[in-house]
Amino acid sequence: LMIGFPVEQAEGITSYGGNGLVRVQSANNVYSGALWGTINLDYAQKSHSSGDFTFRDGTGAISLLYGVHRYLEIGINQTIYQDRVFSSAGPALGPLRISLKGNVPTSQPPTINFGAQIFVSIPVGAASNVHWESYISPSASVGGMIIMSLDSNPLDLNRSKRLHFNAGIIYHNDKNKFATIEIVQPGKGVIGPSANGKNSLQTIFGVGLQAPLRDNIHFFTELTGEYFMDLNPNTAIAAEGSDISTYVRITPGIRYQF
């Protein structure tokens, strides 16, 4: 669920701070001087195989996006509530993400638009290395992303069929940030204890499609995921036994303008 202002805009603020869908970003920027805000709420649950209890994961975040220039925007995303699944610890404050995104200047609205973003994630709360979420480092992370958007009607994006491509990389300074643990994998037994001597390097990707159904109703869907080129061996994802995160998501939805 995403709630935002101004209500006349059929766009949102992504978890990485730029304008777009839920996680996939648009190469277009907000107008100079424009201020957008959103409240993002996510929830998932899964029953234990015994049926005796249920794991629940909720996330709440607030975001602000400001148009510094026609071709430049700055975003702030703060996770204010993060459940910690499979942990006895309760919910906690999550990371603060600050981003700067620009696109290629053009003389007129283009059919193909290119952009790029840099961002930093700062751990202001106790929520890190959380199951069922894209990886959250317990220390500062920096990243960048390249973005391409295709539009059927670049003169009126509210009536345009849009296709977005995102690809990026995030460097996590998480070396020696976890207690050394024994890793147990099915069929392999104990393969630890592991060393802490590696920072994680994560690639991210996303593809998003949006199309107007009516003037005030838009359909969208997106595919997002991540792959670790290097992975701290004591992260939750390493314990799952794969460099490919299980958190590959297909997210369809409807966006309604009041």
Can you characterise this structure?
There is one protein chain. The chain has 258 residues and is an all-beta fold. It has one helix at 236-239, and strands at 2-5, 12-13, 19-20, 35-47, 54-69, 72-82, 96-103, 112-122, 141-151, 162-172, 184-185, 189-190, 200-214, 217-230, 249-256. It has an 11-stranded antiparallel sheet with strand order 1-4-5-6-7-8-9-10-13-14-15, with no helix packed on it. The two termini are 15 Å apart.
Stretches where pLDDT falls below 50 for ≥5 residues? none
In N-to-C order, the SSE pattern is: EEEEEEEEEEEEEEHE
- The total beta strand count reads 15
What oligomeric state do these chains adopt? single chain
Task: Give the helix proportion (percent range).
Answer: under 10%
**What's the N-to-C terminus distance?**
15 Å
Kindly name the structural category.
mainly beta
The helix tally amounts to: 1
